[in-house]
């Protein structure tokens, strides 16, 4: 994992992006499964308001060539769109699996600090200052202290 992506903000963004990708593709599939927003009969009704015989012929099954052409192409388009969205969901699932594996590695090797407490950081700094003071005191005494 890239070291610049090991911070909490980058991990949260990565998880949020995956969630957004899941939702967008799932919603897209549901929209494509729903009823068609355009149909032949409604197009004929709006285009031929004065000619009711033509629209009734289309409704009764006459003019089948025109009816089959649009729905089949629309069905093919929907099918391909659903397949594409499904593949995007599969890719997002694979990416989430990779994210989980990366988090496990970070936790296992100690780079992911899950139990950090701000009070612990303050204590560590105080201890580091005390150790630095002891080292500075020893350095001031010089080498004669070590020869005894």
TrEMBL record:
Q: Which GO terms describe its cellular component?
A: mediator complex
Which InterPro entries does the record cross-reference, listed alphabetically?
A: Med22
Q: Which Pfam families did the record assign?
A: Med22
Q: Provide ranges: composition bias, Low complexity.
A: 36-50
**Cell location:** Nucleus
User: Is Ribonucleoprotein a UniProt keyword of this protein?
Assistant: no
Question: Per UniProt, which keywords does this protein have?
Answer: Nucleus, Transcription, Transcription regulation
Task: Please give the superkingdom of this protein's source.
Answer: Eukaryota
Task: Kindly state a single biological-process term from the GO annotations of this entry.
Answer: regulation of transcription by RNA polymerase II
Q: Where is this region: Disordered?
A: 35-73
One function term, GO molecular function aspect: transcription coregulator activity
Which family does the entry's similarity section mention?
A: Belongs to the Mediator complex subunit 22 family.
Q: What is this protein called?
A: Uncharacterized protein
């Amino acid at each position: 994992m890239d070291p610049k992506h090991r911070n909490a903000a980058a991990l949260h963004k990565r998880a949020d992006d995956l969630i957004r990708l899941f939702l967008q593709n799932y919603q897209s599939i549901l929209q494509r499964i729903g009823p068609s927003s355009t149909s032949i009969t409604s197009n004929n009704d709006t285009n031929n308001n004065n000619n009711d015989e033509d629209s009734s012929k289309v409704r009764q099954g006459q003019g089948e060539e025109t009816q089959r052409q649009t729905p089949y192409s629309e069905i093919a388009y929907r099918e391909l769109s659903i397949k594409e969205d499904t593949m995007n969901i599969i890719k997002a699932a694979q990416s989430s699996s990779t994210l989980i594996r990366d988090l496990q590695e970070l936790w296992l090797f100690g780079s992911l600090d899950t139990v950090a407490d701000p009070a612990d950081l303050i204590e560590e700094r105080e201890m580091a200052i005390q150790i630095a003071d002891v080292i500075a005191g020893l350095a001031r005494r010089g080498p004669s202290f070590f020869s005894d």
